[in-house]
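Let us work through a complete example step by step.
Step 1: write down the sequence.
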Amino acid sequence: MLRMKIAVAELIIRFELQDIDTLERRLEQVRKEFADLLRTKEGRRQSEMISVLSAMSTTTSIRRDKNLRKKILKITSSPSAKTNDVIDYNNWLNVKIN
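Step 2: predict the structure and record it as tokens.
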């Protein structure tokens, strides 16, 4: 589980570096490598985060993309929000939409 969280943190860093080609390649690798964990209850938050990162990498405006904003609000408002994240997803995502 920790390896998966670290992999998601790496994806966030790739996004911040605007290394979209590597981000897209790593998104697929992480999905394949952690497929079983991502389907579990414990992996749901990381799965949602991977989905958001994928959408963020293709959108022209995070703030204007209503579907993406809904996904982000779902992650940041969930009861498991902030629990044991390697990087604080909530804070990072809130900065992106505000």
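Step 3: interpret the result. Residues 2 and 81 are 16 Å apart (CA to CA).
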